[in-house]
Fold this protein.
Amino acid sequence: MTDKEVLVEVKNLTVVFGKGKNKFTAIDDVSFHIFKGETFGIVGESGSGKTTIGRAIMRINEVTEGQILYHGKSIQGKIPKDWDKEITQKIQMIFQDPMASLNERAKVDYIISEGLYPSKKYKDEADRQRKVRNALLNVGLLPEFSSRFPHEFSGGQRQRIGIARALVMEPEFIIADEPISALDVSIRAQVLNLLASLQQQNHLTYLFIAHDLSIVRFITDRTAVIYKGKIVELAETEKLFAHPLHPYTRALLSAVPEPNPYKERGKVVEVYDPSQHSYDQNPPSFVEIEEGHFVLANEEELVNYRTSLKMEVNK
Amino acid sequence: MTPKKSRILVIQNLVIQFTLRGRVLTAIRDISLDLYKGESLAIVGESGSGKSVLMKSIMGLLDKNGSIKQGRIIYNAQDLGQFTTEQEWLGIRGKEIAMVTQDPMTSLNPLKTIGKQIEECVVMHQGLKGKEAYEETLKLLTDVGITDVKKRYKQYPHEFSGGMRQRIVIAIAIACKPAILICDEPTTALDVTIQAQILQLLKNLQQKYGLSIVYITHDLGVVAKVADRIAVMYAGDVIEVGETHEIFFNSKHPYTWALISSLPQLGSKGEQLYSIKGTPPNLFQEINGDAFAPRNQYALKIDFIERPPFFQISDTHYARTWLLDPLAPKVDPPAALQAFFAEGRSYAND
């Protein structure tokens, strides 16, 4: 796990909305990196800032402080035109709601090639059509669909069109913001499988933003838990699920219902109370407590977490 | 649960059809289902399976182009299916059968204080006035876990978070002391942490008021948490019904198998998650046999010809699949599912 190439690096990212009295800090000094080829998950409740991180990397939201590096090079502020063009193409996004994210008045053909036109990523008209065709086939849709309008498709099919639109740009890195929350259970499985097989075929890296932990566990390699604009814990997904340290992570995990009525009956849901920390006198920092496992804690809590880790290993 | 429990709502051979541009769509195809007093029944199915239509018919809220073609809905010795006037429904809707809807953002009036909105029901259905109604409203707010009730009474919906709003919607629903509460995807729009709180609240209220609750949902995690019994719906038909553990760990219908298999908890990383092939049937067309047959890898010839009857598995567990016929070949559920069944049952004795 150590020799991996870092694709995206986020350093001390802070995003502030509004000014003066209306100032609101959506992202507060967040740092993490994403390796090439992995699926990195961000989980948190609504309003925690998980989408803002994704949008900051997409350069939709402006960064107030900190840096975002892609292949080690900065992507925000004044950057050379070529580099700007390259990252616009290499970083793509899949949106949450397939009902709202497709242009109702455009045919699928146009929706998919919309990104191709300005970037001139095709030789001639025949080449463009071939690309659209391939993108559709890649996501399991028929090439004939390109002459239809979005309203002629079901939710799952629309989400596939959204994925095809991202794929046609031949991206390296895809930000998927709750790509399956709006879909039906049986369709979810199909779209998850599609995302996984596309990752293998095209060597993609995903940033997977979600609030459903059962899906995060299934698809991601590493996961960051975010609470009120701060990452409170970051680890390999299995480790995070096996040994959650931060009380917020524990509360979040305990709140997820499992498909087992016997277990659910006796379960006590932990509630996270932010006032349990004494951060006024003893401010926390983001510490690597064991290899690849980061947690936001102060000195006193770190001691506790370290002991609890030892306990769990001994079991 | 003893099989002798009293039935509060009985649905018999219900058929509901909609007319759309001259074509007839059969949304509910001959459903029979009982709701027992004090239980939680979960209705599970994909979108379009008819679970919401079924509940709307109980509330008298079917769209104008839809009607009950056959069958009965019996509550309190009355057949709700025969109701024609709004006046008749007003005695049932809200008063005896209340509903909590999916989206707390749109189900409250943004121009009225939440106190007034709850009081409205108290005045109308309980006949209380003035100070009495006010006191009752405060009591309801306390019941659904809202603090500082006197101040909250005067606030508008936009001053509350999603979870708090859902609590208010629940307060309105229980304001008239209904016997049956229908919760249509009550927590889909909420965060997991809030979801856990709301489900706990509903459970507490159920005990306190002796409510019978019907949950409509597609989230099997939620079902595992709250339901006593589960009815699985597919293409307008109930295809399997049983107690929660029977459906989770001993289901018999291939569609139920498929539904459970597509849970991400059953998949292992790096492998394909099980997904159901094909699409649900077109309800404009007449369905012969088992509606799931075209997508069913275990389908028998008879599945395409004749609709399977309910086969009894236990006192409480029934499934509509020909696989249970004594003459049918013995079919085992997929291996991953068998492992899930076995693991689940191992918790039974704890």
